[in-house]
């Protein structure tokens, strides 16, 4: 498990472009090492801006997008095509703008294809094992937003999904943030990624960031149950990438 690092960007715009540049570099580096790369996408407002910045960046051509596998860390269990799906935003801002190989795009299935989130989760786990040839693929970069309640992916404070180790992809019922049914990677699965990046922007995230990052650094005492974001670690890097507003309460920690 890696020690967390923190980068505070002066504005949301600098954060968005900073994360976009990092992502392009990380995927290009992974391809230079191994020929292909993988990224786990997140939902959320700032992520949508990061995706648009990647798509608009002249540096994007450093990556062979046809050799990038795209996964999702969580998905809202609503019908395919529903605007609430994280997949829809990622396709609109990123995937539709890049020369991706659709065979390497792995959305979490929605309602309709499967009767309940558990079935969709089981299907996603089998897709991960299919691509990983029996094992889970090792993700190069796993992106996470941070909720106002310090949730990550669809792992919410005090929710039973936080405590599940097996299976690694979980169906979630009773999400406190709508919609109530979701599918998410477990904390253990998230923590199998080489690099985990927690991206947070704006004053609405300042309390959650202070609680979760403060607990990681020992200045606060919240458990992972209270602040799921505090339980996240990549095997090689854990990056907290914030703007000044989201970090505003850290200085008093
Ligand atoms: O519901 C979700 O919320 C979080 C955070 O979203 P934000 O708009 O507050 O940044 C997101 O990371 C997660 O993927 C999504 O399903």
Automatic annotation (TrEMBL):
<protein>
    <recommendedName>
        <fullName>6-phosphogluconolactonase</fullName>
        <ecNumber>3.1.1.31</ecNumber>
    </recommendedName>
</protein>
<comment type="similarity">
    <text>Belongs to the glucosamine/galactosamine-6-phosphate isomerase family. 6-phosphogluconolactonase subfamily.</text>
</comment>
<comment type="function">
    <text>Hydrolysis of 6-phosphogluconolactone to 6-phosphogluconate.</text>
</comment>
<dbReference type="Pfam" id="PF01182">
    <property type="entry name" value="Glucosamine_iso"/>
</dbReference>
<dbReference type="GO" id="GO:0006098">
    <property type="term" value="P:pentose-phosphate shunt"/>
</dbReference>
<dbReference type="GO" id="GO:0005975">
    <property type="term" value="P:carbohydrate metabolic process"/>
</dbReference>
<dbReference type="InterPro" id="IPR006148">
    <property type="entry name" value="Glc/Gal-6P_isomerase"/>
</dbReference>
<keyword id="KW-0378">Hydrolase</keyword>
<dbReference type="InterPro" id="IPR037171">
    <property type="entry name" value="NagB/RpiA_transferase-like"/>
</dbReference>
<dbReference type="GO" id="GO:0017057">
    <property type="term" value="F:6-phosphogluconolactonase activity"/>
</dbReference>
<comment type="pathway">
    <text>Carbohydrate degradation; pentose phosphate pathway; D-ribulose 5-phosphate from D-glucose 6-phosphate (oxidative stage): step 2/3.</text>
</comment>
<dbReference type="InterPro" id="IPR039104">
    <property type="entry name" value="6PGL"/>
</dbReference>
<feature type="domain" description="Glucosamine/galactosamine-6-phosphate isomerase">
    <location>
        <begin position="11"/>
        <end position="240"/>
    </location>
</feature>
<dbReference type="InterPro" id="IPR005900">
    <property type="entry name" value="6-phosphogluconolactonase_DevB"/>
</dbReference>
